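CORE FACILITY INTAKE
Project code: CF-77B
Contact: R.S. (postdoc)
Sample description: multi-component assembly, two entities in total
Requested service: structural model of the whole complex
Turnaround: standard
Below are the sequence entries exactly as provided by the requester. Do not edit them.
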Amino acid sequence: MLVLKTDAANFRVKFEEILKRGKMDIENVEDIVKNIINEVRERKNKALFEHISKFDKWTPIKDDDLVISKDDMKKAYENLDEDLKCALHLAYDRIKAYHEKQLPKTWLTFEDNGTILGQKVTPVERAGVYVPGGKAFYPSSLLMNVIPAIVAGVEEIVVTTPVIENKPNQLLLAALYICGMPKAFKVGGASAVAAMAYGTETIPKVDVITGPGNIFVATAKKLVYGEVNIDMIAGPSEIGIIADESAKPNYMAIDLLSQAEHDEMASSIMITPSEKLALKTKEKIYEFLEELERKDIAEKSIEERGAIIICKNIDEAIELMNEIAPEHLEVVTKNPFELLPKIKNAGAIFLGENTPEPIGDYIAGPNHTLPTGGSAKFYSPLNVEIFMKKSSIISFSKEAIEKMGKDCALLAKTEGLTAHQKSVLERLK
Amino acid sequence: MLVLKTDAANFRVKFEEILKRGKMDIENVEDIVKNIINEVRERKNKALFEHISKFDKWTPIKDDDLVISKDDMKKAYENLDEDLKCALHLAYDRIKAYHEKQLPKTWLTFEDNGTILGQKVTPVERAGVYVPGGKAFYPSSLLMNVIPAIVAGVEEIVVTTPVIENKPNQLLLAALYICGMPKAFKVGGASAVAAMAYGTETIPKVDVITGPGNIFVATAKKLVYGEVNIDMIAGPSEIGIIADESAKPNYMAIDLLSQAEHDEMASSIMITPSEKLALKTKEKIYEFLEELERKDIAEKSIEERGAIIICKNIDEAIELMNEIAPEHLEVVTKNPFELLPKIKNAGAIFLGENTPEPIGDYIAGPNHTLPTGGSAKFYSPLNVEIFMKKSSIISFSKEAIEKMGKDCALLAKTEGLTAHQKSVLERLK
């Protein structure tokens, strides 16, 4: 694992590599994905049947074959291990409670001249949630995408997921039941994104598509952006840690590994002024590695993309971390809250030694769908607002237009828009 | 101009054409735009010089040639007609006051077990605003894009605009001065979008790009989406009017024309249960048309894309309008506010006969950059939040992790993520 000092001659070169992490090469798959989207757009369910046959190892024959029924969900839920059921319900309740606090409100303001201005907030009618399938199914992803849409008040939530060999994952079914979904659809990949963007005989066209996925799904989301809204284009997972000498090396080590185990392309970066912590943490990483089920993935990620950076002081650590703009940021210092004003770019900020990043993946409440690859500089975590939209409200009284109409007409005239000008002047007659 | 009744046999066919309005055929220009972007990405200012030479009829020689200086802005401002200066300041102040009300706040919540959850709001560091140039320069567009970024607290706002023959529009310069911009950059089209997305020797890389533009600009924005955030992909302008028999035909006619004059591709649609209003409005439209400077554009738009729909009642009007999801919606009925609960999809809603749409273009305060082509179903008006992003805040106490850690570890184990599991269990030891 790379250990770097910020005063080393080659530091900036190495650091630039970290900054360039996680850029996905969408161009390579763009033509394939465009074809898939066009096929679904033109031949709808028929195209879906073919794609499923090709990728998911089963062949739907009629439209209904695409549907996962509520009955199947209920059965899976009833067979669920009791402890797991409790854990999923706890997660559901906490995620719901957090996202309820995000709900924006409609507001109005008034002026003495009779002007009323405001902003109306309305949920979108239909939201589409993509859930990756096969062996990598994560029930937590379903909760994190569906709950914000429920809280937003979306009327119809369309869940799509690939179902390999037509054998649905029982945990997925149970999680769908917990979320109260009336049905879901067995279709995955770029085909699922296309189906939700344009609609088919069975799958309704939605207004917004969210959810993680591989590069085909990410590319499809980018291509249909504008036809529908999307949450973000997410790449491999990342963790950044800012720690001082008070941090425990075993905590730091296992937290870095918790991102590394996601993906060989994941990035785990710690920045600390404590050389002692740096070296001890590195040691602990190799100890823990041996105990992991996903050791191979975690090891490759740590070796190729992990880094511990030894810096001059905490201020420098924060500056560098703001450049990295990590998806997850742990701050493990004596008084982590005092650093919050300076932390500008991070998807989620985990404060203190009792807040390991996995707490945020499952149980804390905030969303675990977070901007990656430095896009925390401009994207927010998945939240209820992606499932809502605003309309401006404007109401002028006779008095208001008499007061401001002349200025408005002058601006319209200046722009050469005489119908705009006349439209105001007509009211001033 | 098309007049349609909802009970006519061919109504749905005609209505579907309205729903399909304003789809831009980005694919046709995608390859050209990709080339432009790649050139700017690779050769930076050198590529910009070539593109300016090709499209803007002048040839920059050195990097500084791209810069519009504060001095030039000041001179233009000082030469501005006094009435126009006042009108622009009024617009500036009202737009600023409205957008200040949109500012989201950082919040924190607490649980008795010591858990702290919240959401931190931070402005992006740099925002890029594209301003169309040449004969179609609209000072109002500059205000509507720059002011939300100022209100959001963005440190550096990068304004780019094409300057034909290197002769800057004096009104643009004055408006830049009113906005307090320290400088701006003379580059337009897809090149400007690429420069802001990737940075050049002179133009800094930004986090978010907003602003209207032609199909090349729109396509470039879509292509760089993900590298930076963008506001939306906007198409031709539109107005929808819901009116009852109380509406004045001359008001309705000139308001419909005020969108039609923007663009031959603009759509102006009125839906009313009053056949009398429908026919009178149509008559008035042809009268007003003769008086417009942009008669040819407005006429083509009204003939090819305008429509008056006679419906059964106001409820049907609202239903149809929600399907259309117009950029601008005027509601001119006896009591327009009582219809607000049912209005779901519209960029901006103008209530009552004294609120003509142009009031919202210039002076009311809400943004005039609004979702078009039906995308009001999922996009919001341009607002301060595009220039800000959120970070989740999570802090667990020892007590909190002891209470919830077991459930969290179980979920991690269920997903096969043993480092996640251990990261939590390590704290429970």
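Facility notes:
- DSSP finds 15 helices and 15 strands in chain B.
- Chain B has a mean pLDDT of 96.
Invoice: internal transfer
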